[in-house]
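quick one: zinc ion bound model?
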Amino acid sequence: MVDAGLFPGSIAAVLGLMIGSFLNVVIYRLPKDESVVFPRSHCTVCGVLINWYHNIPVLSYFMLRGKCAKCHTKFSIRYPLVEFLNGGLWFWAFYQYPLPEALLFIVMASTLIVISFIDIDYMVIPLLFILIAAVAIIVYYFFAPHQWVLAMWGVLTGVCYLGGVYLLTRGMFKKETMGMGDLQLIAVLGAWLGPLNVAATIFAGSLVTLIAFGIATLLSGKTEDRALPFGPFLAFTGIAFYMLNLDWNSIIALVN
Ligand SMILES: [Zn+2]
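yep, here:
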C-alpha cells in the first residue's frame, strides 16, 4: 500500500523547489530594493542570463558545477540549499498535515527561510515578512477559532520570555543582544507554535546560539565583540519543534 501522503507531498516538493528559486531572488534582491520579477535570473558578476535549462532548482547548480557558464564565478552553495530546504519542508507539509494546516505550514516555512537568510546577510528582520506570517496565522485561526486562546498565550509567553532574556543579557553584557525584529519574530512564532513549543524554541534556540558563538570565538581565536544573527536560530528551532510535535503533557507528567 502506497502512503496516502506521498502523492500530494511529491507535487508540493516540486512546487516548493520552484518557489525556493524565487525565495533566493527575494533574499538577494529585496533588501537592495531591486525588482523580484525583472530582470530574469542572471549572473551577478558578468550579468549573463541564466538559460531556462539551467533554471532547474538544485540540479542546475550541480549541472553547472556551482559556477557561471560564462565567467566561471562560483555561485554560493546557499542557492541550492534554500531550494532544497524549501522543497523538503513543502513535501513534509503535504505529507504530514491536513489541508489548512499544510497551507499555513508552507507559508510559515518559506517566510522563515527568507527572514533567516536576510538576517544572516544584513542583521535585520524586515517587517514585511513578519506581517506576511501574521496575516497567514490570522487567516488560519479565522477558520479554526477554537485555537485562538492558545495562540494568544503563545504570543504572550514568547514575548515575555524572550523580552526577559533580552533584558537579562543586555544587563550582563552591557550591549544590545538582540533587536526589535527578534521580538516581532518570536510573537508570530508564539502564535503559530503555542506557549509550550515557543518556550522550548527560545530555550533551545538560545542554547544553540551560545554554542555557535563559542565555536566561532574558538575558531577565530579573537575575543572582540562578535555579532550573530539570532533570527535564524529561533526560526529553524521553531520549525523543528512544530515538526516534532512533542506531547508536552506526557513529558511534564513524566518529570513530576
Ligand atoms: Zn557570470
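Residues 99-256 form one domain.
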